[in-house]
Design brief:
Rossmann fold, single chain, seven-stranded parallel sheet, globular, 8 helices
Length: about 350
């Protein structure tokens, strides 16, 4: 167990693949900057890989005060054992008080291994992070400036706040898209700390001969307009209405988990707690009841139009414009009006 260090830094794992930083890591720097400023400690990033030093400049521009750079040929491709060994050593050496990871496939694999090795707590899939105090009611003891790790629980029916007051670093993975992307400051620079890496082939469970990454079919986070369909659309064939309206508006098609599970559209288009969190200028919800798990991923949209034949549908609680009616009639009318205006 790493000793509690109340002056320790806030760390963000800078995930990269093939020399390209993941957006989730940059998003985390915005929240990391906020946490570090509140605690009055530096914000640092961990950058592991081979020949990735050129990424340090960008991390500084996005808010990092310091970059711990660990380069080695055996870190070229991500493997749990090698990455965890390096990070375990850095945590033992520098004793940060907070360590954050993106809730990506890589982060969800790496963070538990590091937490286990350091005997620290870990909260997965957080949607918010704050600094606050906690009182042990039985003893009256107050712990100040703890990381409040906030996430949905019990299927999204409640929001839980989890704290870790005695086993540090306080660790969390954070869902993609829930933190805003910070605005880079090209004049800002981070101090680079080059760390020695001691790895051998025996530290790797497998040998990777080649790595192939399949890009997502749609970039929902970058879309200013999203038209999303739910189970209420009825069928995969009928989901063409969602595609057509999205194309008319120059936007991207999205979907609820129910629509994805029913095979109406593939998982890259999923919006919600287990999908992508989005903040478009316009979000059109077609045949979506509005379960809290879906609202968690789209409620921050600037304008929400909901189309549903149930006037009591929960989606109407977050919608700015509400259309009660049969989507099979409403959506074609919208498409016709948009095309005629164009």
């Amino acid at each position: 167990m790493i000793e509690v260090n109340k002056q320790g830094e806030v760390w963000v794992f800078a995930e990269q693949h093939n020399g390209k930083l993941e957006d989730t890591s940059l998003e985390l720097l915005s929240k990391g900057r906020e946490l570090a400023d509140t605690l009055k400690v530096p914000l640092a990033t961990l950058l592991l890989g081979d020949k990735v030093a050129d990424l340090c400049e960008r991390l500084g521009q996005y808010g990092a005060d310091k970059v711990y750079l660990a380069e080695h040929p055996l870190l070229e491709h991500y493997q749990t054992s090698s990455y965890a060994k390096v990070i375990d050593g850095l945590i033992e050496k520098y004793k940060p008080q907070i360590a954050l990871y993106g809730a990506t496939p890589c982060g969800r694999d790496l963070a538990p291994r590091v937490a286990s090795a350091t005997k620290a707590g870990l909260t997965a899939d957080c949607t918010d992070l704050q600094i606050g105090n906690h009182e042990i009611k039985k003893t009256g003891e107050v712990y100040e400036n703890l990381l409040l790790q906030i996430r949905p629980a019990f299927g999204g029916n409640i929001i839980a706040t989890i704290i870790n007051y005695d086993r540090w670093p306080q660790m969390a993975t954070v869902r993609e898209g829930v933190m805003p992307m910070p605005t880079p400051d090209v004049k800002r620079k981070a101090r680079i700390v080059k760390e020695p890496v001691h790895l051998s082939q025996t530290d790797l469970a497998i040998e990777i001969l080649a790595e192939h990454m399949q890009a997502k079919k749609v970039n929902l986070k970058a879309s200013r307009v999203i038209v999303a369909g739910g189970a209420g659309v009825g069928s995969k064939d009928n989901f063409k209405l969602v595609w057509d309206l999205a194309h008319c508006l120059g936007g991207a098609p999205g979907a609820t988990r129910a629509a994805v599970d029913l095979g109406f559209i593939d998982r890259d288009h999923q919006v919600g707690q287990t999908g992508t969190t989005v903040r478009p200028s316009l979000y059109v919800a077609v045949g979506i009841s509005g379960a809290i798990q879906h609202q968690a991923g789209m409620a921050d949209s600037q304008k929400i139009i909901a189309i549903n034949n149930d006037p009591e549908a929960p989606i109407f609680n977050v919608a700015h414009y509400k259309i009660v009616g049969d989507l099979n009639q409403v959506v074609p009318m919208m498409i016709k009006a948009i095309r005629e205006k164009v």
